[in-house]
Design brief:
about 190 residues, alpha/beta, five-stranded parallel sheet, binds adenosine monophosphate
């Protein structure tokens, strides 16, 4: 199973990614988490990425693409993977297509979570209090929403045209949203 999970910042991608990936026994690969781990460890990748992340901008495609390529080459990702927060630009879409077709596989579905704009900002401001993420300040939150709208939202139509788009209402409780995702993917929940 090869899946991508899309949606604006605050849509609940990270939370849902783990649940979906656990169901399929595949790794949930979050580019944001990998960048943050590198920032914490002070690696050259982290130093580079932090400049963009703190401003709410995207890390350049070459940097992000090679990081994802290395990650999905690892053993645990051979049966499949769920990408959380990648691809985010049309250049990344093309790169991912290349990575997947090279292995003779295909992308099974692109799940997109939709959430009202105001709800997104409220959720992120709440997360700022609990998690203390450097990019959860109001100005940066707004910038991240703008970048999502201009760079990433157009990808929804790309995957719709391919017939693999799965749109899910991301409003409401975590478990309700998970149930909607599972239903949309035709997954029978484990009891
Ligand atoms: P996230 O945790 O998914 O909200 O990502 C946090 C930040 O990491 C983003 O605001 C970007 O600066 C960076 N980032 C994560 N994924 C990507 C990507 N696919 N392309 C470029 N930058 C990314």
């Amino acid at each position: 199973m090869r899946l991508i999970l899309m949606g604006p910042p605050g849509a609940g991608k990270g939370t849902q990614a783990t649940k979906i990936a656990d169901h399929f026994g595949i790794p949930a690969i979050s580019t944001g988490d990998i960048f943050r781990a590198n920032v914490t460890q002070g690696t050259p990748l982290g130093v580079e990425a932090k400049k963009y992340m703190d401003a709410g901008e995207y890390v350049p495609d070459e940097v992000t693409n090679s990081m994802v390529r290395n990650r999905i080459d690892e053993d645990d990702a051979q049966p499949g993977f769920l990408l959380d927060g990648y691809p985010r630009t049309t250049a990344q879409v093309a790169e991912l297509d290349g990575m997947i077709s090279f292995t003779g596989h295909k992308l099974d579905a692109a799940v997109v979570l939709t959430v009202d704009a105001e709800e997104l900002v409220q959720r992120l401001l709440k997360r700022a209090q609990t998690d203390g993420r450097a990019d959860d300040t109001e100005d940066v939150i707004r910038r991240r929403q703008e970048v999502y709208a201009s760079e990433t939202a157009p990808l929804i139509e790309v995957y719709r045209a391919r017939g693999i788009l799965v749109e899910v209402d991301g409003m409401g409780e975590v478990d309700e949203v998970t149930a909607r995702i599972f239903a949309a993917l035709d997954i029978v929940p484990e009891s």
